[in-house]
Amino acid sequence: MARLADYFVLVGYDHDKRGSGDGQGRIIQRFPEKEWEDNPFPQGIQLFCQPSGWHLVLERKSPNFFVAVLTDINSERHYCACFTFWEAVESSQPQKNHTNDVDDEEDSKFVQAPQLFAPKSLVLVSQLDHTEVFRNCLGLIYTIYIDSLNFPLESVIGNLLTCIIPITGGSQRTISLGAGDRQVIQTPVNDALPVSGCSVALLLKQLGINNVLELFCAALTEHKILFLSSSYQRLTEACRALLALMFPLKYSFTYIPILPAQLLEVLSSPTPFIIGIHSSFRAEMQDLLDVIVADLDGGTVLIPECIHISVLPEPHLLQTQTALSMVLDPELEYADYAFPPSSMSASSMKFQDKEIRAVFLRLFAQLFQGYRWCLQIIRIHPEPVIRFHKVAFLAQRGLLDVDFLTKVLEGMAFARFVSERGSPYRPCDLFDELVANEIERIRSEEGNAQKVLKHVKEISEQLHRNENPYPAVAMHKIQKPKEGSHLRVQQNTFPHLDEGTVQWIIDQATAKLKNAPPAVKAEMKCMVPMGPPSATMIDQNGIVLANSARRLEVVRNCITYIFENKMLEAKKLLPAMLRALKGRAARQCLTQELNSHVLQNRAVLDNQQFDYIVRMMNCALQDCTPLDEHLVAAALLPLVTAFCRKLGSGVTQFAYSCIQEHLVWTNLQFWEAMFYSDVQNHIRALYLEVDGDHPSETGCNSVEKQQRSALEVAAEQLRMWPTRSKEKQQELIDKEESIVYSQAIHYGNRLTYLLLPLDTSKNRLLRSTAVGDLESVSNSFVTNSIAGSVAESYDTESGFEDAETSDVANSVVRFINRFVDKVCTESGVSNDHLKALHANLPDIVQMHIETLDAVHRESKRHPPIQKPKLLRPALLVGEELVMEGLRVNLIPDGREESVGGSLGGPPILPAEGAIFLTTYRIIFKGAPIETLAGEQTVIRSFPVASFAKEKKINQQSRTDQDSQDGLQLRSSTFQLMKITFDEEVASEMVEIFRKHIHKLRYPQYVQSTFAFTVGQSPKQVVESKQKEKNPSLRTMSKNIMKNAKKTIGRQYVTRKKYTPPTWDQRATPHVSEEIEQSALTLSTTIRSDKSTMSHMVERACCRDYQRLGLGTLSNSLTRSKNEPFRITTVNRMYSVCRSYPSLLIIPQSIQDSTMQRISRCYRQNRFPVVCWRNSRTKAVLLRSAGLHGKSVVGLFKSQNAPAADPSQTDSTSLAQEKYLQAVINSMPHYADTGGRNTLSGFTSAHMNSSDSSDKQRQPKISVLMKQVMGGKEEMTNTFSRGVLGHRARVITLANPRATTKGKESPQGKWGSMRGSGRLSAYSLNSDVGLRLAGKDTLSPQANGGPSDSHYLRQPRAGLYIIGEKSQLKGAKQDPSQQWEVVPIDIFDARHVKTSFKKLMKACVPSSSSTDPNQSYYRSLEESDWLSQLHKLLQVSVLVVELLDNGSSVLISLEDGWDVTTQVVSLVQLLSDQHYRTLEGFRLLVEKEWLSFGHRFSHRGAQTMASQSSGFTPVFLQFLDCVHQIHLQFPMEFEFSLHYLKFLAYHYVSNRFRTFLLDSDHERIELGLMYEEKGEKKNQHTYKSVWDYIDRLSKKTPVFFNYLYAPEDGEVLRPYGNISNLKVWDYYTHETLSEGPPYDWELVYSRREQVDDGERAPRTQRKIVWPCYDNQNKTEPDAISKLLEEMQSLESELGQVPDKWKETWDKIKTTQRTESKQEGKHLSSSSLLMSSSLSHHRRSQCVYLHEAAVGSTLNLSLDTDSSTTSTPSSGVMGRKSTSTLYSQFQTSESEHRSYEGILYKRGGALLKAWKPRWFVLDKTKHQLRYYDSKSDTDVKGIVDLTEVESVTLGTATLGAPKNIEDKAFFDLKTTKRVYNFCAQDSQSAQQWIDKIQSCLSDA
Questions:
Q1: What is the pLDDT of residues 1417-1434, one digit of tens each?
Q2: CA distances from 1576 to 1081, 1554, 1572, 1580 (A)
């Protein structure tokens, strides 16, 4: 029984506090004034009476009513029913004064101040929620007051406060307040079920189904929910409805259905809440970012972006939505029916409300089904202690991954649910019945709408009956105020009530109650039914996960084989077994099977068995989700202390020491669940025994008893508890406590086992998590546990703050103490027991440590099991091991190909093997850890010389718990090795390994590199002592060079030196000698002049100069004046410039002595020399270093400069001018007849010849120039020199102030070519953002130069000097000079170095990154590598254009050995097709890179001296540019892309001596220049990369490009825009099967080994893995494959196989002759496709890959015929794309092997002879004929398979006249004989031969 109302309060407006802003309310009277003991008065009621604030209003409002809910400190809810009406405010004094002060005129307006009204509230405070009763009671009090009825208000209020009604039980009580009223109150049958009235139906009506479901899910998953409405009562109803829907869960957070305005800051609280506020405060909501706002009036729910609501899992969501729509809109189902049923309408709101709740109740029954099977009862007496096993529940239901359910189970509402409903013996309600009895029905009715609806209605009836147990309610009788009574003008204020009267009535009633007998509520306790256990776990789509019988069979068989000791069988099954363990069912099966092999808690295994079992356990734990892991770990926990192996006498190692690395062992929740589960089992056993003593009591047989669950046992005990004696009760309590205590000790031990590492001596903790990415393999048992991660996980909480300093034992003790504290406190263990436990734990841990020490010692002695045998790598001849292999694991880096990844295939990495260090390479060789890839060999290697950077890494081991030390080694050949060392590798060995790498990478002298030491026996390796003893070769050489001039003709003996021979030259007798040395013959004889001369001539430079017509050595000696250039020997002693070659080309007219002077102007003395001449325009390309600062000013004198002093006339700048003028004069059309150095025009002959090309070319150069210099649009005229006589300005230098550093200019644009024909294919429209040019405005007047009219200038400068903008700042050009300067911004070596580092990191990342800013393309862009290639190509194309237009160019950049070399080489490659052959490219590299002194050693940081300068791959950048050009012109290069990769690899590998040292001078010092002659070549070790390439090219076509079909005189103009550049696959591609494919012997010998049976016999099926296999080898291109097959067939037939090149040349020749013969019969227009294909060579149009070869390839090889169809000299040779495609005609035209005209006689005897066009098609094996050559319709086909013979025939009747007899031939087929007649006997014979060859082919 309870009071209907606890307090009655009268709250009014507080007039005393009016002035202070918002008004306030005050309590006027309260009854009773004394607080009830059981129910104190809630504070702050006045705030809730007027939630929007207390305000005076200008007109009376209608009374209103709502119920607010207050929650007190004990979480008890108080319902405050507020009835508010408005009373007139008495006029106050200030207002009267105000009216009197008003002027007389306005008197009439202000006769009276406006009437104000103040609110007053009648409030009932109750613990019961009877809204309607409260409304009626307060309404009655108001009616008595307003209508002045004759009832005393005091007695009405007294009666109200003394009214006592039952809380529950379904009774009906009539109450009256003594004012002639009568009300009937019905109490709910079961107060556990919420009473909702119509509120739930109203909520759905307001918000709709989906919105309500979202709110429902949000409330359950603890989000903040805010309701808005303009009605307070609606807010209360909505909040009540949401709580009703959550039943059986109860809301445990802040619940304020109506929040007053003064308390709005509550909305910012961090905890979840359900709150309602008036919609007038909507503006205050703007800054609430984490609150879900439901607008009841607008029907919307607003969910902020940052909130993710977990929704109901399917199929529940759909089922709930469907059921709700059936309830709310039953007509929907029949809406489309032609004859809808008549009686279909929705239930009334009251019934609808219950139906909706029934739907949600069914939903909860489905979600929580089987929950009672997962309750763990830990104690029964004295109080039940129950916990819920969440993981087990989710796992049974197969809902481990369902976010919604996981969150609900973790929420406070569910915790309260468990504590209230967990008890097995308590009153039951509707939900219990549903979960216990209706689950099967719900499951079976799914999908049947009618049955679902029927069930819903049944539940809703029960809910309705609970609220309204008596359907026929007696009539209420309540007085109501008269209509409009609140608007009466004259109203009294609410009277002051007499407290005494009310209190007297209350006292009377209280006294009566005391005397009444206490009402005894019958406790309806019963045993809560368990319900059916959860259905077996089924995946959502109904397929049992991974539960195929086959997989489980594999698991069972494998375990059986292991225990039967059939290890070979087990090994075969193991990979499949480990793969199967990824499925839950297989893991469950594993634990069951292992359980069956445990006898009496122990299973002793041998080493192999033990290893396998541990591997399986690790694998089962590794591959599961965290929740799944709990279940697997729980099943394995008893097993890990059972399986063991004997290590020695009395030493046993258990499985737990090998599976410690999994995080689950550090999870407190896991241990608690395990502990409670064991305690429950023991308690159940205890009471089954207790009951066994009294069988008669229970009255059921023992079998049934044994099957009862723990909860059923507990329920029985709770029922019997009151009947037991005190002693018995105490005894049971003690027994339960001892069970918990003994389990606590047991678990203390278990935790010790799994947390203490095997090697406790290390005394340090791991700081990283232990879970590896892949299946764990346990090969070594020297393991370290997870204790560190324990510390990691918990050091934020108590107990682990000093984990860093403490040792392992202490941290483990602390962890176990925390566990024991928690479980014992929850289980109610006494303090004494707890203290005893804490005292015992350190001893337990200490004892275990002692045991482990012995195990650790023994396991160290034990040979590690099954560590794979170390595979030794194949070595080159002369390559020796420096260190034996160190056992390591190669772990994956950021490249995803090797780990399976998106490309598929099993993960090849991580792999286990060893790392070897040789004199040449660092090599890893091993096998993948993933057993499915286990048969493969993994090789990753790189040359020691390319080693770039090392970094120490710390990787968490997968086999142990220790974190392993590792190294990350990066190489400039784009390779990365991340290795972790095995525990058997001592740290000293790792240090030695690192030191050796550094020693080999940076030797003190270049002679110590592999290229020099290869093949030497170890004894000859220079020791440090020897280094001290002997002076270095270099110092000796320097001394010799100094004394060279004194020692002409003298022989002196020095080791490894040649004495320089005398050099007798008539013109310059003072030059004494050229030093030459050989490091190999050690001869001391002086070479004769003749031998020296022959060597000089043999040099690459000389051969090339001779080819280019730049002079020969003999010409230089005789000084022939006809030649414009000569070879000078001024540098033969390297005295002028040490980094230049000894022989150089300079203009004929320049004296050697002048060169000495000129060289001083240039950096490093690298003066301008000619390196190439255009054979057509005779323009020359020169190279030099940049000028010194002073020289720049000297060279470009201003015209206003004062007259030079006569003494300076022969100054260096004058000498320079003479030199440059001489270069200009060397070109035929620049030197006039008078010999004066003026620029006359082209000869008319030249003009005419090049007219067509020049007109198109002019604008192109200006555009290119502008791009290269970065000028603005105004520059367009500067270079557009058109036909003769057009005026143009010289490009002057930019205004220095306009120069800015940076890459982008908003105004600058790339020019586009609008030329026609050949040039139209080449337009440079590129993105401004990618420009590398500067920002200068190159307008002529920028620096004060004269205007156009001042002088007349030749249209084209004779010489362009390309210099650095930064160098040429401030210099002024003399207009009379005949050269022009092109200042460009170019990157320097530093930029290349940093760019390369970034490129390496982009292409070979060390770890995979999810950060979008670290993506591959972003990193590539940031590296700027492609921008640098773009700049190089841009400058090169400009120079090519200038040279092609007849202007010479001098490249004068930096020190003349980096960018200069790149540009000069690229220009020659683009302009001269000779350099695009294998021989020519070698010559180009030898000339421009080696002879002209690119600093290979310095840039490659090859020795200790250059280590600090870092690796700068200038040569690699050049090769990349060549690669880009190759991609665009695949038919112009004789060499393949592999050739470029080969050079890129070996120029840093130091395998060959070619790319060592910085200049010819240094090579001569070491005697490397002419070594080959004197040395008998070793068959195997090649000192020069070129010899090696030559030898290899004879063996294999690996360096040859089958598409090579050059066009004579073709000048290439590649696209240089970044969008046209591709990332070279050399940077990204790797082959793990054999390592880098650039050491041919290694790859080739490996293939032979494999063929010799290293592997098992293979099937025909080939699997090619990306990144593992060498795809070019496994899938060779068609031609390579055919050549290989031919060789092998010839070998089989016993013939000596032809060399591939000979075979290839034969094929080409045959084809050429064929096409020529055909050409006789064909008109020139239908030439073979080869000609057209060879013109259109840019790969954007015909994309022919390096290895991909089409069927037309054999035709395109013929280049002879191309000259007939296109003039090779013209620029218009390139055809447009459309022309190209028109060449590809119908399929017949592609297979015409032979064709021509034949006369054919008709089939009948007297038919006439007619000429027909015959086509012999070898491919289709047929002879077709057409009416004429142009005809496309086939008139007939002779199938050659039917031909029996081809014989000479005779002339027959009607044959063509004047044709010799031998021109006739007959073709006999199986069906008929064909008579043919050719034009002559020779032609007939050809036809017969062709047809015969076709027949023999078949």
A1: 899 999 999 999 999 999
A2: 9, 18, 8, 12
